[in-house]
Write a structure and sequence with these properties.
The protein is an alpha/beta fold. The chain has helices at residues 3-9, 12-56, 65-78, 84-96, 109-115, 121-134, 138-146, 149-154, 159-168, 198-207, 209-216, 262-279, 298-305, 324-340; strands at residues 183-184, 220-231, 234-244, 249-259, 288-295, 311-318. Helix 2 (12-56) crosses helix 4. The chain is globular and about 80 Å long. This is Cytoplasmic protein.
């Protein structure tokens, strides 16, 4: 807004709004500049520590006397902000990112602390890319790292796919790209041994929709719950209906408490046929169906899905964070197998 326009219109409300917009933009710019300087300073501190280590042959690993000494002396001379854990993170920051130019100014120091906690270089590159693309908050980034999103997606790919995932992030081009196994629903707060119903599971998902959308991944928008389909005189209800903005299609999700049965797959196939005929707009792609159960019999699912032309998937959910050791081992085996070939 030009100053002359504000004066010329003699609009006091416009004047106040314009000043507010200017202040907001200036504060955001100042925050980015301060954050950029702070992050660069922490990186350089880490560089100093590593350089000293190399020359003195002392290690500033967590719990070392050198780290304690650096932390204590810096706190005495410069005040707060130099706890042992912070000083250790400065060092780890430099070791994780030898070239600071690879980092974006969007990332705050808190983002970086989460990223450098990821030991695997490929996984760290993936989370950095996804964080920037999706503008994750620190809390969202922490949750995705803890739920091992990278490993869960990577398990369905070969080595080239894993490398692409790390370099380019999670690109969605086909139905298979939006499906995970397992889906991690720890945010619902349901204890493992708690007896719950499908309706309670659905309600908890609705109550935690923001978290559920984060777990589903990019591109999902919520449409409806218990979406009614009437065939003849009989009513059927799809538990959850979403629309995917990237793939331009409906995504139907049916929730099951135990093992996914062949009847569940047949029912979802019916829902998809209905949506193809009755709900698809002219420019829509074919709908996708996901039957989401607590257990999945791979052999039964394989035969039940055989011959189905619709985009239909059976996947598992779990109510707690995944076993990190098992997922890491499975991921490492895939990469090692590809290298061996």
């Amino acid at each position: 807004m030009l100053k002359g326009e504000i004066v010329g219109r003699n609009n006091y409300k416009l004047l106040i709004n314009s000043i507010g917009e200017l202040l907001s933009q200036s504060r955001q710019k100042a925050f980015r500049e301060v954050n950029s300087i702070l992050v660069k300073t922490y990186w350089e501190i880490g560089q100093y520590i590593v350089t000293y280590e190399q020359k003195s042959k002392e290690k500033a690993e967590y719990g070392s006397e050198l780290l304690d000494k650096i932390s204590m002396d810096l706190r005495q001379k410069h005040g707060k902000g130099f706890s042992r854990s912070n000083v250790f993170n400065f060092r780890r920051f430099f070791l994780s990112y030898p070239k600071i130019q690879t980092l974006s100014g969007f990332l705050s120091w808190s983002h970086i602390v989460e990223l450098i906690s990821v030991e695997n270089d490929l996984a760290r590159a993936f989370y950095q890319k996804e964080c920037l693309t999706n503008k994750w908050s620190v809390r969202e980034l922490e949750r995705q790292i803890n739920s091992m999103l990278f490993e869960r997606i990577a398990l369905s790919k070969d080595k080239k796919g894993v490398l692409a995932l790390a370099q380019k992030g999670h690109k969605i081009a086909k139905a298979q790209d939006i499906v995970k196994s397992p889906y991690v629903l720890e945010f619902l707060g349901i204890p493992e041994n708690y007896r719950y119903s499908e309706r309670e599971l659905e309600q908890r998902i609705i109550d935690n929709m923001q978290h559920f959308l984060l777990e589903l991944g990019k591109g999902f928008t919520f449409v409806a719950r218990q979406y009614r389909i009437t065939l003849g005189n009989k009513h059927f209800y799809v538990d959850l209906v979403f629309y995917h903005r990237i793939l331009k299609c409906f995504v139907l999700i049916d929730l099951k408490l135990g093992n996914i049965a062949h009847q569940d797959i047949g029912q979802m196939n019916m829902y998809l046929n209905y949506f193809k005929k009755e709900e698809m707009a002219k420019d829509d792609s074919e709908p996708i169906g996901i039957v989401l159960g607590a257990q999945k019999n791979h052999t039964l699912v394989e035969y039940a899905l055989g011959g189905i032309s619709n985009k239909l998937f059976a996947s598992k959910y779990q109510l707690s964070l995944p076993d990190k050791k098992s997922l890491k081992k499975a991921f490492e085996n895939i990469v090692a197998k590809e290298i061996g070939e």
